Amino acid sequence: MDGVIYKGKQLITGAKEFVERLQADNYNFLFLTNNSEKTAEELKNKLKGLGINNLTAHNFITASMATAIFLSQQSSQKTAYLIGGSGLFAELQNLNFEITDDKPEYVVVGKTKYFNYEMLKTAVNLIRAGSRFIATNPDTLDPIEDGVEPACGSLVAAIERAAGKKPYIIGKPNALMLTIAKRKLQAHSTETMMIGDRMDTDIVGGMEAGMQTCLVLSGVSSRETIECYPYKPNYVFESVAEIYPEKF
Length: 248
What we know:
The protein is α/β, with parallel strands linked by helices. It has helices at 15-24, 40-49, 63-74, 86-94, 117-128, 152-163, 175-185, 199-208, 223-226, and strands at 6-7, 10-11, 31-33, 60-62, 79-83, 98-99, 106-109, 132-135, 141-144, 147-150, 168-169, 193-196, 212-216, 235-237. The protein has a 5-stranded parallel β-sheet with strand order 6-5-7-8-11, sandwiched between helices. Helix 3 (63-74) packs parallel to helix 4.
């Protein structure tokens, strides 16, 4: 979503019309985002406020949702210490996790603008004491209206450096999140296209999940950065405004 449909609070030109094309032609689609701060309902309301209508919470999969699903399948205690936004807290609480700093099974980190030294200290000590380290996504920067802002990966880097342990990352490019999306769409990989603005998460994730991939240049990656990677997207467009699915 960030860098593909909007930047911060600003809708990318042509994004509304692109979504309307998908809806008019009855394409099954999901907004798949590594942003873990907001719930699906909040994201739906954000898009509605930007002029994109007729969506439901079922049109979204967030890194928080994927993290909660994964941990609920793995966890024996269902306890976690969380650093993140309301979306991450809501998804884990919906699956009956206890949020605690008392010997939790997991330390889970997502993006939040409220990250501080005490959170860093608590997370590091819990991980060093044996809590398993989980990150919602690896993105270090997110595009916004006037540039970029630090994202989950920047917070994770500080914790990883101090704790001396690497996290297991749930979101893109992990194929786990893309598998959850395909299941929700009830679609085969060969029938699915991943559209994103990042070579290092969206495009590699879609490729490794067996999907066709489409890079848009409205967010993080540019035509120049494509050449820095050993893989390439199937298609490159300036933005989703240029994408007409029936032409693929």
